[in-house]
Specification:
Layout: E1 4-5, E2 12-13, E3 27-30, E4 35-41, E5 47-49, E6 56-59, E7 71-73, E8 87-89, H1 96-119, E9 135-139, E10 155-157, E11 160-164, H2 170-179, H3 187-203, H4 210-217, H5 224-234, H6 253-276, E12 280-281, E13 290-291, H7 306-326, H8 339-358
Parallel strand pairs: 8-9, 9-11
Antiparallel strand pairs: 1-2, 3-4, 4-5, 5-6, 6-7, 10-11, 12-13
Helix pairs in contact: 1-3, 3-6, 6-7, 6-8
Length: 363
């Protein structure tokens, strides 16, 4: 994630901020410009953005629910922003707990959409493209369950991503993280994983990357249901960490791709944040002395050489894990990237680059 600052007072801002905590300026996010802007009111519901002089905007309709801070051009026929137009179903907001969970999901989803825009990937909602578009159903379940079953399932099917809003409940998510022996389980991680399935269908399934996918990840035509049953009954195969980024990735080639795709997004977005802060790792370890800003224009989202990202990523993860341990906390990054996993990440990165070209983004 980039760093943002208030155009009025220069105060540092978070992506989710709706007001500057220093000068109280109203803030809105401009998806086309990929920046957070201080706003000046120009009539009822109309705003001038200081980051883009001359342009006029309205807030997304979901700002009325305190669920979105993105802006829509004043002359647009749309009432919702590019991120919120991806919603097909939201939970019943008359239930306060549903609103709290949905608000948390929207924060994560907006961060996901930020990444997809930064990556330049093809992105359409199902209202505009029923066949190839993307949509989200956020559904409540009186008895949340996070594995595939008869109730609300978190999963993906032909561009429709269903999220059980119980995923936004910290206690429930932590309980299932422990039950399923997962070292890492977050709301944002779920979004990145599920959208990985969508982009497998868009960028791999019917294209020239399919043979390369099968060579690295395996044959996705293997019985998916049977594979998941085996995984839940017996766990991952012995020695799974040599070949897979997570235990769940070992269950089926589709899940291996989705887990690896999500991990690639973890890397590029975290590196952007680290580079924006000007972080540099200096130590006596073999990974020491590696600057995250290899050049003045270093951009993890558009970097074509995956090795450049790996050389920045490994020392950064060693550093943040060491900081966490110094505070008595578990590792922030509980993963070990084997050579086989790095090759899979390299493949995903190449597919993302090709997807950027497919979408007509050259930079």
């Amino acid at each position: 994630m980039k760093l943002f600052e208030c155009q009025v007072c220069g105060n540092a801002l978070y992506f989710e901020n709706v007001r500057c905590e220093s000068c109280d300026a109203v803030l809105g996010f401009l998806p086309d410009a990929q920046t957070l802007s201080a706003l000046v009111a120009e009539g009822e519901g109309r705003w001038h953005a200081l980051a883009t002089p001359g342009a006029r905007y309205r807030f997304c309709a979901n700002a009325d629910h305190d669920a979105c801070n993105w802006l829509v051009p004043e002359d647009s026929a749309e009432t919702r922003c590019a991120a919120c137009r991806l919603n097909r179903t939201i939970p019943d907001l008359s239930q306060p707990e549903n609103w709290r969970h949905w608000h948390r999901l929207e924060q994560a989803k907006h961060r996901l959409v930020y990444s997809l825009i930064r990556l330049g990937l093809p992105l359409a909602n199902k209202a505009d493209d029923a066949e190839g578009g993307l949509a989200f159903d956020f559904l409540a379940d009186p008895g949340p369950t996070f594995r595939e079953g008869e109730r609300v399932m978190t999963g993906h099917a032909q561009g429709l991503i269903t999220i059980n809003i119980g995923e936004a409940d910290d206690a429930e998510r932590e309980r299932h993280r422990q039950d399923m022996a997962e070292p890492y389980r977050t709301v944002l991680g779920h979004f990145r994983h599920e959208v990985g399935h969508y982009y497998w269908e868009r960028l791999v399934r019917d294209g020239p990357a399919l043979d390369g996918f099968r060579a690295l990840f395996g044959d996705e035509r293997a019985d998916y249901g049977a594979a998941l049953e085996t995984h839940y009954a017996s766990g991952p195969p012995e020695g799974w960490s040599v070949r897979f980024v997570s235990a769940y990735a070992a269950s089926h080639p589709w899940e291996d791709w989705a887990e690896t795709f999500a991990h690639c997004l973890h890397i590029v977005d975290t590196l952007e944040t680290a580079q924006a802060f000007g972080l540099r790792i200096e130590s006596g370890t073999p990974h020491g002395g590696q600057s995250l800003a290899h050049a003045a224009g270093f951009d993890s989202y558009t970097e074509a050489d995956f090795d450049v990202l790996v050389r920045a990523w490994l020392p950064l993860t060693y550093a943040v894990n060491s900081l966490n341990r110094s505070m008595g906390q578990p590792d922030l990054y509980p993963f070990v990237l084997s050579a086989a996993v790095i090759e899979k990440l390299r493949f995903v990165h190449a597919v993302l680059r090709d997807g950027r070209i497919l979408a007509g983004v050259n930079s």
